[in-house]
Amino acid sequence: MDARTTTPAPVRVRARYTAPDTTRDAFITEVYDQYCSLLVRYATRLLDGDWHKAEDIVQETAVRAWKHAQFLSARREHIRPWLFTVVKNLVIDQHRARQNRPLELVPAEELDTAWDGTDAALTSHVIFEALGELNEQQRTVIRLMYGMECSVAQAAQHLGIPPGTVKSRAFYAIRALRRALEQRGVLGE
Questions:
Q1: Measuring CA to CA, which residue among 65, 82, 84 is closest to residue 27?
Q2: Closest by alpha carbon to 85, among 143, 28, 41, 43?
């Protein structure tokens, strides 16, 4: 082989690593075994003793932990606070939804039985498009705080910045996202 002939350097492709389902399943089984009873008791207290709803909340928490297994498994010391934060947020969301319009009070005629999800899919597409207009710092804060449901302190620790900076970035990110959605006609001006 001629010394002057060189082979091109391999091209590095950045593939997004996702944990195999078996790794996620093992992780969530371990987390579930360790924290399930604590989370059910906590959710039951928050839900004024409604054990069945508490189990539903814990199941949703487990699904979210499974989705974020790669992030959480690397930060094992933060799993417990993350789980309790997710449970609390889910209970708050459920309470707010019930306050806004309890399902029991919705007349049957107003329920849209033919809903196919098209509007939701289009809205999601527009939101992802609007998120693409944010800068990287803003997208990261949005992803951590709203996508992964990290607290301000958890996001600050993950990013290695003060909590005040996280709050500031979140504020400006939401404001920029709102502007982008208003331009697309998703939010009223």
A1: 65
A2: 43
